[in-house]
Design goal:
The chain is an alpha+beta fold.
């Protein structure tokens, strides 16, 4: 049985339209996100700007590639078991931030400055303030937009000797 928020979200996205492989457009949502454990889907609002779509898809596909849609709910399960431990709460919040930072870095790794600028504009336009901790979904503009943009601006490819 699903809880109230998850059930409400699933009802919202039922009227989505499949535009291409695994990308669904929906009128009832305000920002892009990834939803599902066994068959994760990328959901985007119908009114999203055309030029933002490739960046959002790249970001969300990177989450799929790294199984972030599994790790985040798993971390939330651990948090619910250790709900009394403030370090568990801190660890979960930091894990969510790290997931987004790492995903951003992997996406921008091969971008030039103009593409990075467009990526940051997409982040800004899709950002939505969240005042609660959630297990799902993994959302494009979900956490720490200001810090994520700083990381994109300051990103430098690691030296070969560091990678080795």
């Amino acid at each position: 049985m699903k809880n109230g928020k998850a059930d409400h979200l699933y009802k919202k996205v039922q009227a989505s339209i499949d535009t291409e492989y695994n990308v669904w457009m929906c009128d009832a949502i305000s920002g892009p996100f990834l939803l599902g454990i066994f068959n994760p889907r990328i959901y985007m609002p119908s009114d999203i700007k055309e030029e933002q779509i490739p960046y959002i898809i790249a970001h969300e596909k990177e989450h799929i590639r790294c199984l972030d849609y599994v790790w985040k709910p798993f971390g939330f399960v651990i948090l619910t078991i250790h709900w009394f431990n403030p370090f568990a709460w801190l660890a979960y919040v930091l894990m969510c931030k790290d997931i987004e930072y790492a995903c951003d870095e992997r996406v921008i790794r091969s971008m030039d400055n103009q593409e990075k600028k467009a990526y940051m504009e997409s982040l800004l336009s899709c950002s939505s303030p969240r005042h609660y901790i959630s297990a799902c979904p993994v959302a494009f503009g979900e956490t720490s937009i200001k810090e994520r943009i700083k990381n994109v601006v300051d990103y430098k490819k690691p030296a070969v000797w560091i990678v080795g």
